[in-house]
Design goal:
The complex is a heterodimer. Chain A contains no helices and 11 strands. By secondary structure, chain A is mainly beta. By secondary structure, chain B is mostly beta strands. Chain B has strands at about 5, 10-15, 20-25, 30-40, 40-50, 55, 65-70, 75-80, 85-95, 100-105, 110. Chain B is globular. The model of chain B has no long low-confidence stretch (mean pLDDT about 90). The chains are: A mainly beta, B mainly beta. The interface of A and B includes residues 89 and 97 of A.
């Protein structure tokens, strides 16, 4: 099975940078995903890492270290609309996703 | 963009009722999933399906069953609803391509009284 840990809540100021960490212990690793979920809405795909290193996509970047079982999602130039829950999910070899409990990010003016 | 729709946004049922949650996707994706989402627990996989008439148990299948008679439709069935099945239910669809990202429907908030 998978054990995925991420902080419950984070607060940051508009325009700042926030880093959301995710650690995992897995019986089989086949990729790591980050999803964004606004309150009352469905999760939407943000990023995917399968190899070590940094993937950058606009204001969002995601990093993976497979040897450490560690990933982070970096949100730069925070905007009010970035207030949401961010879900870390690990994919196993049978293509199932296991999700962390999610990190609620609150952006303050 | 893949569109995944679910039959109801909100549903209220009584204990013991049989409940059907329907999910339809419009992009011919092979793989479909049912999750429930509860505060502090995240999304937990109930069942998934790789193809028509195929189903696999997820992490919490007890009290649920599924049906996939057509590629675009994946149904979750609560044979006898119980109050501990009050939750947000999310359906997702994914291709077999390399990224295999999952596209989620809007969710059904089920309350069992």
């Amino acid at each position: 099975g998978q054990n995925i840990d991420q902080p419950t809540e984070m607060t940051a100021t508009e325009g700042a940078i926030v880093q959301i960490n995710c650690t995992y212990q897995t019986s089989g690793f086949n990729g790591l995903f980050w999803y964004q979920q606004h309150a009352g809405e469905a999760p939407t795909f943000l990023s995917y890492n399968v190899l070590d290193g940094l993937e950058e996509k606009g204001r969002f970047s995601s990093f993976l270290s497979r040897s450490k079982g560690y990933s982070y999602l970096l949100l730069k130039e925070l905007q009010m609309k970035d207030s949401a829950s961010y879900l870390c999910a690990v994919r196993s070899y049978d293509y199932k996703l296991s999700f962390g409990a999610g990190t609620t990010v609150t952006v303050r003016a | 963009d893949v569109k995944v729709t679910q039959s109801s946004r909100y549903l209220v049922k009584r204990t013991g009722e049989k409940v059907f949650l329907e999910c339809v996707q419009d992009m011919d994706h092979e793989n479909m999933f049912w999750y429930r989402q509860d505060p502090g627990l995240g999304l937990r996989l109930i069942y998934f399906s790789y193809d028509v008439k195929m189903k696999e148990k997820g992490d919490i299948p007890e009290g649920y069953s599924v049906s996939r008679e057509k590629k675009e439709r994946f149904s979750l069935i609560l044979e006898s609803a119980s109050t501990n099945q009050t939750s947000m239910y999310l359906c997702a669809a994914a291709t077999g391509a390399s990224t295999y990202e999952q596209y989620f429907g809007p969710g059904t908030r089920l309350t069992v009284t």
